[in-house]
Every structure is written in structure tokens, then in C-alpha cells.
UniProtKB/TrEMBL annotation:
Gene symbol of the encoding locus: SNX7
Coiled coil: 363-390
Gene3D superfamilies for this protein: Arfaptin homology (AH) domain/BAR domain (1.20.1270.60), Phox-like domain (3.30.1520.10)
Organism of this sequence: Coturnix japonica (Japanese quail)
GO BP term, example: endocytic recycling
Region (Disordered): 1-27
Ranges for domain PX: 90-211
Protein name: Sorting nexin 7
SUPFAM superfamilies: BAR/IMD domain-like, PX domain
Annotated keywords: Coiled coil, Protein transport, Transport
Length: 449
């Protein structure tokens, strides 16, 4: 994009894709949005979840810089104020901060401090401080999915390297991940069921060696392989015969939602990329007028005025980009991840339904002992009913949160755009008025005898 190909003043945003029909609805509870934006994948860390290698001279000095939404310390005045002034119904407060590098003989990795403040009776203390690495968060997510297969577990940031957004394990990457992990834990803390999960409590309170010991008590390899085989077998059998209509509607909704939110994610990143290119060009465009003014005495003031206007519009563009990267991109990408999670939850519900259907078919064909199968069918019917009720309740809650988050994100973007255009317009109008006044003053002086 050439600098002269785009005016330095206000510009209209690029046209996006179609509307988002699934997003209409009523607002729900507010949630913070701090997730890692999506970008081109360079590589995956598939072989070893523990290995998070990064440059050993990476500086973490700025990782704890103050942010209104993220106190730098759990004991800070800001955090105490928020802790005391939150609604009385909230009794669990979690902060993820203070990323720290650890170097061993075989790897270099990052841990984050997790500080928990609570007034719940099941906790032995009112405050805990532990350090956790990314693999610990992955473990917690897997345990929650195992214990609550038909609840919607909040997403974690992906473990890949992104191109065009941040360099691998730079301060920006570490801070972006910290925000995402902070939001992950607080999403769980706000969930009416997940917040009381025993593994979640252990994650928040156990020291590193205690957590490591607890992890070893999990299901073995053969158990995990068995679960995988059952899931694959269920998917091979095809659709569920007796799936309730509402879950078919959920599945159709999520297919549409997944397509549209992924399109929005791509468009939003394209807009951000174009805005960044425009910003970089404007930074070069303004100084050119300043240099030019040195060789043009007659129009030097006008050229310097243009350079000043461009500089002000450049700063406004930078603020607009910050609004996109902080308020829009993370929220959209969070729901890209949520769409994948929801599709997985629906498949797990179908798997439970398929087990019930197969037992009912076997009983109808008299392929097994009737009394034994009747007992198993009764248990499976209870399991299906519990799964259905859990998913229905979580679905309504998730949908309200999604609608509120999306509405807030797009409203913020609209407000930011309005301020941007007003600021740029006022800048150029002020310059034009000054030039007009100077021009009239020169004419009056020439008319005098």
C-alpha cells in the first residue's frame, strides 16, 4: 500500500461479511475478555506438553505492567478494593500474574502465580498462592471434561506459535497468555457447577509437589485408550436415532455459529492487519511534510500544519488498533474456541444416548438376559437425563453470556470508531479553519494602501 494511495485523515472501515443471525438475543452476565487472538500456525508442541522453550534472555520486566482490568499484585490497593466491593454472592476471587521463567537441564518453561481469595467453608484458608505452568492448566481442563462431559468447559489459549501477532515467548506473548489463563480460571470460578469441582480446588490450593502427586492418581493409559475407542466407535455408527429435537437444533445452531464466527475472526484479523499497515505508513507520511517545509518558505507553515494533523491522526489510529486488539479480537477468538468445545459436548451427549439406544435394541432383539439389561438400561436412562439437563442449563447460560459479550464487543468497536473519526475530523477542520483565516488575513493586508 503506497503512502500517497490513502489519505491521512478519517477512513471508512473495510466491509465485512454477512450478518450474524445466531447472535441476536438478550444480554446475560458480564465477563472479561482476554484471550489470545488467532493467527497463522507456524508449529505445534504436540510431542511434549511440558516443553515450552523460549529465548533465555527474554525480558519479563513489562509483564506485570498495570492494567485497569488486571491488578499487578493480589495485595495491591486496587485488588483489595475490588475484592471488598464485589457483590456479596461472589466468594471466590482468582488472580493470575507474575510470569516467571524456569531453566532446567532439559527445558526452559514459564510458571504463573495463581492467588486465590475465598470465604468458602470447604477451603482451609482464606488465601492461597501457588505457581502453575501451562501443562497444569491443560490437566485441569481435561479433569473437568472427564468429570462433567456435558458441561461447557471454558477454553484455554492454544499452544501454538502465532505469526503476525506476537513473537514466540516475547513479553507480549507471555502477557497475552497470562490474561487468557486468568480468564479461564475466573470463568470456572463463576460457573455454578465447575466452581465446586474437587480438582479445581486442588489446582488452586496444592503446592507443586502435591499437585504432581495428585496427577499420578488419574486414569491410566489403557483407560484413556478405552475412552478414545468408545468415542471413535460412537462416531462411526453415525447419527443418534432417538436424539431429542432440541439437541438437533443445538447442533444445527452450532454449525451455523461456528462458520460465521470463524469468518468474523478472519475478517477482524484482516482489518487489524490493514490498520497496522496504514498506521506504519502514516508514521512515515507526516515527517515527509516536515522535511519538505524546510525548502519551501512560502508554504512552510501549511506543510508543518499538515504534518501535525497527520501525527494526531496517527496517534488516534494507534488507539483504535489497541481497542481492536484488546476488546474485539480476543472475544471473537474465544468464541471460535467455544464453538469447537460446544460441538465436542454435543458429541459426548450423543455418545451417552447411543449407549442407551444400543442396550434398548439388544433387549428388544432378546440378545441378552432381560433382567440384567433392564437394570443397565435404567442406569443409562438416568445418565442420559442428567446429561440432557446439565447441557440444557449450561446451554442457556452460555448463550446469554455469548450474546452479552458479542454485543459489548461490537458496541465498544462502534464507540471507538466514532471517537476516532470525530478526533480526526476535528483535527482537519481546525487546520482548515486556521488556513482560511491566514488566507483572509493575507488578502486584507494586500488591499491596504
Amino acid at each position: 500500500m503506497d503512502a500517497e494511495g490513502r489519505a491521512p485523515g478519517p477512513t471508512l472501515p473495510p466491509a465485512g461479511g454477512g450478518g450474524l443471525e445466531p447472535l441476536a438475543g438478550v444480554p446475560g452476565t458480564a465477563r472479561t475478555a482476554l484471550l489470545t487472538p488467532s493467527a497463522e500456525v507456524l508449529e505445534f508442541d504436540d510431542e511434549e506438553d511440558d516443553l515450552e522453550v523460549f529465548s533465555k534472555d527474554t525480558s519479563l520486566a513489562e509483564a506485570n505492567s498495570f492494567s485497569p482490568s488486571m491488578p499487578i499484585s493480589p495485595s495491591s490497593m486496587i485488588n483489595q478494593y475490588k475484592f471488598e466491593d464485589e457483590p456479596e454472592l461472589k466468594d471466590l476471587f482468582i488472580t493470575v500474574d507474575d510470569p516467571e521463567s524456569h531453566i532446567t537441564a532439559i527445558e526452559t518453561f514459564i510458571t504463573y502465580r495463581v492467588v486465590t481469595k475465598t470465604s468458602r467453608g470447604e477451603f482451609d484458608s482464606c488465601e492461597y498462592e501457588v505457581r502453575r505452568r501451562y501443562q497444569d492448566f491443560l490437566w485441569l481442563k481435561s479433569k473437568l471434561e472427564e468429570a462433567h462431559p456435558t458441561l461447557i468447559i471454558p477454553p484455554l489459549p492454544e499452544k501454538f506459535v502465532m505469526k503476525g501477532m506476537v513473537e514466540r515467548f516475547s513479553d507480549e506473548f507471555i502477557e497475552t497468555r497470562r490474561k487468557a489463563l486468568h480468564k479461564f480460571l475466573n470463568r470456572i470460578a463463576d460457573h455454578p457447577t465447575l466452581t465446586f469441582n474437587e480438582d479445581f480446588k486442588i489446582f488452586l490450593t496444592a503446592q507443586a509437589w502435591e499437585l504432581s502427586s495428585h496427577k499420578k492418581q488419574g486414569p491410566g493409559l489403557l483407560s484413556r485408550m478405552g475412552q478414545t475407542v468408545r468415542a471413535v466407535a460412537s462416531s462411526v455408527r453415525g447419527g443418534v436415532k432417538n436424539r431429542p429435537e432440541m439437541f438437533t437444533e443445538m447442533n444445527d445452531y452450532m454449525e451455523t455459529f461456528s462458520h460465521k464466527i470463524n469468518v468474523l475472526d478472519k475478517i477482524a484479523h484482516r482489518i487489524y492487519k490493514e490498520e497496522k499497515e496504514y498506521f506504519n505508513e502514516m508514521k512515515e507520511y507526516g515527517p515527509i511534510h516536515t522535511l519538505w517545509s524546510a525548502s519551501e518558505e512560502d508554504i512552510a507553515d501549511s506543510l508543518k500544519g499538515v504534518a501535525s494533523c497527520i501525527d494526531k491522526c496517527c496517534k488516534a489510529t494507534e488507539k483504535r488498533m489497541a481497542g481492536l486488539s484488546e476488546n474485539l479480537l480476543p472475544i471473537i477468538h474465544e468464541y471460535v474456541l467455544y464453538s469447537e468445545i460446544l460441538m465436542g459436548v454435543l458429541k459426548r451427549r450423543d455418545q451417552i444416548q447411543s449407549e442407551l439406544d444400543s442396550k434398548v435394541d439388544a433387549l428388544a432383539n432378546k440378545k441378552a438376559d432381560k433382567d440384567l439389561f433392564s437394570e443397565e438400561i435404567g442406569k443409562l436412562e438416568d445418565k442420559v437425563e442428567c446429561a440432557n439437563n446439565a447441557l440444557k442449563a449450561d446451554w442457556d447460560r452460555w448463550k446469554q453470556n455469548m450474546q452479552h459479550d458479542m454485543r459489548s464487543a461490537f458496541t465498544n468497536v462502534a464507540d471507538n470508531n466514532l471517537r476516532y473519526y470525530e478526533e480526526c475530523l476535528a483535527t482537519w477542520e481546525s487546520f482548515l479553519a486556521s488556513q482560511t483565516a491566514d488566507h483572509h488575513g493575507e488578502e486584507d493586508s494586500e488591499d491596504r494602501p
